[in-house]
Amino acid sequence: MDQPGRIKKTDVIKRSIFINGHKTSVSLENEFWQGLREIADHDRTTVAMLVERIDRARNTCNLSSAIRVFVFNHFRDEKNSGGEKHHPALVVAKKRRTQMDPHLATLKRRHKAIEDEIADALRHRSTDDLMIGDLKRRKLHLKEEIERLSTVDSKTH
After folding, report:
1. For the chain, which residues make up each domain, given as ranges?
2. Which of 9, 12, 14, 89 is the most buried (most CB within 10 A)?
3. What is the pTM of this model?
């Protein structure tokens, strides 16, 4: 029987998930898995795609912690706005602009470096097509991330 004011123990559930083409294990309390599913359903996406977005946006903490913070912030913001649903990407966007600008600049430099690498590879006929394809995928991933962060950043200012 639950006693008022007493913290209930929750089970930590470990699940395998594919993110960015790699299988990884994530351990979360069931309540966080449920929250993550609710957010994904609301955004009409999959849990895996939502976790990929969280993974790309995290700084230094481990993935499980980043997910917990993301879910917590999502529902806290929803509560504070009177129940109005927020897009999960906006939670990530609340980083201070001073933190975001250097990150965007780094992503843009990496994008340019890969663009130059692709151009160089195309000039040499001996370059492997698979390598060029990989470079193009990495460049596209960076472009999408730059656009996402730029869009989110502009909405918050």
Report:
1. 10-91, 95-157
2. 89
3. 0.48
